[in-house]
Fold:
Amino acid sequence: MREKYAALAAHLTERGRRIWAATEARSYGHGGIAAVYRATGITDKTIRRGVRELRAGRETAAGRIRQVGGGRKRLTEQDPTVVQDLERLVEPVTRGDPESPLLWTSKSTYHLSDALQQPGHQISQRSV
Structure:
């Protein structure tokens, strides 16, 4: 099993790895999840999730790894006013060609995130 996994691992997606591990575990029967974990290092939680997906028979759309709607929502969907508030903060200190999409500001992302958090936005400097 270890050799099979080593040969396949580079070619599998996140979901493919989970489904392969679940299939192997089911083929071993009782103790299969532990055997797959020992041989591959894939956690038992991941393998169990794959087993649940196999039982449910869920399939994702062609070309997708995750189901539609999976993952985090965009910050602008969670907080629609954050972009307007950010533009209001940056506008007085913006430099560059107004016709260009690339503009420069003298404020750091840390200061901008602090200023956006004052009115209640949940935003980090990295998101800014």
